[in-house]
């Protein structure tokens, strides 16, 4: 049934098969700006397909029909890893689950990650810290043992939550929920619920109360439920399994205080005999600390990343483009897109452009959209509604070409097949963010290219922060400067204001590295507004925002009135929905750790 890579068993268990997963989206409307690739025959895929499945725009509401079979395979799974049927021989898996995996999902052999973890988790119910990359079948590795525990312990369906999965982002939470529903398609009595920001909290609580066996959520929204006096916390009184997926990212995003609070809300681990699992791409000191918080003292550590493995940033060609000033960034970006489009060819050109803030994403997308020779772009960031984010992700995942302009909301945990180019317009938060962004291309053994566009002010980042990266320096193409400025001048003044304000907030966090004082920061921002954003004057900023930025009294600012206060609504704290005026990225040490951090990608 499966094509195979002939490797010895020991080497297999030390290797990772990176999945480029494509699963048919069944519900999401697809923007016309992407070329639909659903009709194109796909011959093979790995189990990572379900892990990276698009999820449904309404997956957090009434459950929608799901495909009964897994997508076809695009990467071979070795046939000398253990088979799922081997678990039945040891009486470790319910026959119905095995039927779903074999007959509906069409999986016979485990991926190396699954082979290294599932047997320990099922047979011994050990707590485990597993190092595994995204796209390697790790979601199945923790869902299968968790669902088997639910069945074995004979819980009354819907009475209490048996499995709690904590995910760093809404998108990843929805993907996990989607795969759980696929695994449970022959066991419809068990229900999967999602708790994420950007949705109606009361409706979410009603769905959980009406019957929930598996709950997948983001830290902030889960904490909202636990601390808000809802019944959700009571539904966890008999929780059997706790999973922290992408634990390193949870911590990098500043969620440690929330994780501690959530774990304190759970029943005593020893008395409840709760099993704990942490999956993380990297194992640093802070990951080990949370492991001791969530896992038993004798937890098992398994790494499925082979020593000496070549990472994406070590094998993908990377170009460095330095533009003179911030006013040249949009022009430099368009120049890079045109060069790369010519290099790859229009039919196969599929690019992700990363920008530091949501406002800059919208600005760059607006510029690109007016360039008739470039593919129409789509923007993706946490300021968009959840349904819009889901539809956009699904459309780009299935597209064979197109341009997606995004913040770090998709830098990790999201798989978009066949991305030919990753272009980073401006500094990321740190080296790890740069690497994870770049990792959206050249997946599953495919080729890809990276381009890093910075200004002459930001070269400290390429010289020092990224000193180990081998860049090929490329001259910036600024020939379209006049045309780009003309496009910018026609944009809505509100776009100018938001982009200006977000830029100020973001770069204020880097004043020390830039060797700027507040006056220089404002001067550079004003120059950008007039010469780069096309604003007829320096945009106004509310007095309160100026105060929060610590820029009160700085010359050059155009002070405006504060907007009327509005209610906060039901967005919650979860997922990727934090706001702010454009502060430093999370996990970068910019403030008290007991406060929910402002995120780089979510600036005004």
TrEMBL record:
The text the record gives for the protein's domains is: The Q motif is unique to and characteristic of the DEAD box family of RNA helicases and controls ATP binding and hydrolysis.
Question: Which residues fall in a compositionally biased region of kind Polar residues?
Answer: 44-67
Keyword Isomerase listed? The answer is: no
Residue ranges constituting the Helicase ATP-binding domain according to the UniProt record: 119-301
For this protein, what reaction is catalysed? Answer: ATP + H2O = ADP + phosphate + H(+)
Q: Where is this region: Disordered?
A: 22-78, 555-604
Q: Please name the SMART domains in this protein's record.
A: DEXDc, HELICc
Checking PANTHER family in the record gives:
RNA HELICASE
The residues covered by the Helicase C-terminal domain are 336-491
Q: What is this protein called?
A: ATP-dependent RNA helicase
């Amino acid at each position: 049934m499966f094509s195979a890579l002939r490797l010895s068993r020991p080497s297999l268990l030390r290797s990772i098969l990176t999945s480029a997963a494509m699963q048919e989206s069944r519900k999401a409307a697809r923007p016309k700006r992407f070329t639909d690739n659903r009709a194109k025959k796909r011959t093979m895929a790995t189990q990572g397909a379900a892990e990276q499945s698009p999820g449904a725009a309404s997956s957090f509401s009434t459950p929608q029909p799901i495909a009964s079979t897994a997508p076809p395979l695009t990467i071979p799974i070795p046939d000398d890893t253990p088979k799922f049927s081997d678990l039945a021989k040891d009486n470790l898996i319910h026959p119905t689950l095995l039927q779903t995996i074999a007959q509906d999902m069409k999986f016979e052999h485990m991926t190396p990650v699954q082979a290294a973890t599932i047997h320990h988790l099922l047979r011994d119910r050990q707590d485990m810290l597993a190092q595994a990359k995204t796209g390697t079948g790790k979601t199945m590795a923790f869902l299968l043992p968790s669902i088997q525990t639910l069945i074995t312990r004979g819980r009354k369906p819907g009475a209490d939550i048996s499995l709690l999965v904590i995910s760093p982002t809404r998108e990843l939470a929805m993907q996990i929920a989607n795969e759980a529903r696929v695994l449970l398609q022959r066991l419809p009595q068990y229900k999967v619920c999602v708790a994420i920001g950007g949705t109606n909290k009361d409706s979410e609580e009603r769905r959980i109360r009406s019957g929930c066996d598996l709950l997948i959520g983001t830290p902030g929204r889960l904490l909202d439920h636990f601390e808000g006096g809802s019944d959700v916390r009571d539904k966890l009184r008999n929780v059997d399994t706790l999973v922290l997926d992408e634990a390193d990212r949870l911590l990098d995003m500043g969620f440690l205080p929330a994780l501690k609070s959530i774990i304190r809300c759970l029943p005593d681990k020893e008395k409840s005999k709760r099993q704990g699992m942490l999956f993380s791409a990297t194992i640093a000191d802070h990951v080990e600390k949370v492991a001791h918080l969530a896992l038993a003292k004798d937890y098992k550590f398994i790494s499925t990343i082979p020593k000496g493995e070549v990472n994406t940033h070590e094998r993908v060609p990377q170009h460095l483009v330095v533009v003179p000033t911030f006013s040249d960034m949009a022009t430099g970006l368009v120049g890079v897109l045109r060069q790369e489009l010519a290099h790859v060819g229009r039919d196969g050109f599929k690019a992700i452009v990363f920008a530091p803030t949501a406002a800059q994403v919208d600005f760059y997308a607006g510029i690109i959209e007016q360039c008739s020779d470039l593919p129409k772009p789509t923007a993706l960031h946490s300021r968009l509604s959840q349904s819009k984010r889901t539809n956009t992700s699904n459309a780009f995942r299935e597209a064979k070409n197109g341009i997606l302009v995004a913040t770090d909301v998709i830098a990790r945990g999201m798989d978009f097949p066949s991305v030919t180019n990753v272009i980073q317009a401006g500094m990321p938060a740190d080296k790890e963010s740069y690497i994870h962004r770049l990792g959206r291309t050249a997946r599953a053994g495919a080729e890809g290219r990276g381009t890093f566009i910075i200004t002459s002010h930001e070269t400290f980042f390429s010289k020092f922060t990224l000193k180990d990266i081998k860049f090929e320096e490329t001259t910036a193409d600024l020939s379209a400067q006049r045309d780009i400025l003309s496009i910018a001048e026609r944009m809505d003044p509100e776009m100018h204001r938001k982009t200006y304000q977000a830029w100020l907030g973001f770069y204020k966090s880097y004043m020390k590295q830039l060797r700027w004082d507040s006056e220089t920061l404002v001067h550079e921002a004003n120059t950008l507004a007039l010469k780069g954003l096309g604003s007829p004057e320096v945009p106004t900023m509310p007095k309160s925002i100026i105060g929060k930025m610590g820029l009160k009294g700085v010359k050059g600012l155009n002070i405006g009135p504060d907007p009327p206060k509005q209610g906060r609504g039901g967005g919650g704290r979860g997922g990727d929905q934090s706001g702010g005026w454009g502060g430093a990225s999370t996990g970068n040490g910019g403030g008290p750790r007991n406060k929910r951090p402002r995120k780089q990608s979510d600036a005004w």
